[in-house]
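Justification of computing resources. Each target in the renewal requires a structure prediction run like the one illustrated here; the chain below, 171 residues long, is used simply to show the kind of job we budget for.
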Amino acid sequence: RHLDHGMLPSLAADASKDTLPTSKLALPVPDTAPGAPDALARPACWSGGRFGRYELGACVGRGAAGGVYEAQDPRLGRVVALKVLERAPTEAALGRFVQEARIMARLRHEHIVAVHELIEVGGRHAIAMDLMEGGSLRDELARRSRPRADLLRIVQQAAEGLHYVHGHGVV
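Resulting structure tokens:
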């Protein structure tokens, strides 16, 4: 699942391996509350579950203006997260969305999610970015089974990403 807690880390955990997950900063979109429905109504203009060339999968997060979907990029043969503005944004909101994409696309750090492109389809806008598997930091901290040292390492990785972002004048 792609984390959406505004600038908190997402976890790339593979439960089948005995490895420590890494964290990456994600684009700011409020997280879906635990137990909330895992679906976000898609506008009718997305016939066939598509947004441009992207084939939409499960909704992995939602916010006030849209959602984040797992999406297949058939051209490049990869799975991405697609952050979609589903409501018509104001000019100011669209400006912030575009600015967010441009800023995040310039940042390169092992604990920051990479942005691939800004897309417009039929007047709707989206950002394609890395899809981070696993749960949110909130979910991970709620699980009491992970050793404290692992949790501290995750927090350290998040702090390293935030330090990098801050050093580039973003936060």
